[in-house]
Amino acid sequence: MASASAGPPPGTPYGRSRELPPDRTQAILEAAKRVASRLKSCGLPFALVGSVAAYAHGVPASFQHDADFCILREDAEAVTEALEAAGIEVRVPPEDWLIKAHSHGEEIDLIFELARQPVTRELLSRAQTLPVDSVHMPVLSPTDLMSSQLHAFSEHHCDFGAVLPIARTLREKIDWDRLRREHQDSPMPDAFLYLLERLHVIEPREAGP
Fold first, then answer.
1. Where do the segments described as Disordered lie (predicted)?
2. pLDDT number for residue 5
């Protein structure tokens, strides 16, 4: 009798290779760690952002497609040289707000603008150093991370469902009053904040005069 753990019969791709499918989540983490370690060693300012940053703050891993870092536009050339010297492939895409790197089979976006907002030294100075799968690196603060998500909302892109788990998990770490002030004149972010109130994720805003 064949063992229940024998796997697929010979003749299937999996049967021939006898290798498990790659772990996409771990591959993204490995790529993030490699890039962060290189930037740290070169003393270049940066911060992890996006879904991997949310994971670093305690949100369950649900990576969208790659690892994202924010860097200063004026450091783009130095970042490119540093990564290429470490054997990490870098290319300049048609978009003028980022460069792209490739490691462990995964794309890494190195961003100069977060939802049309320039990356500044002030923004990077607020980053928190956190462990990401054993490697410590600067991670965008919870409030700045949520602000970048709100800035990305528009009439053409308004996926509240993707941002809601981040808001639920990090609600105690986020300065919601600051976000209300920043986004009160933007319909989509303001609608999301109202949704959070109705779902009792955050406290209702105080009534105005």
1. 1-22
2. 39
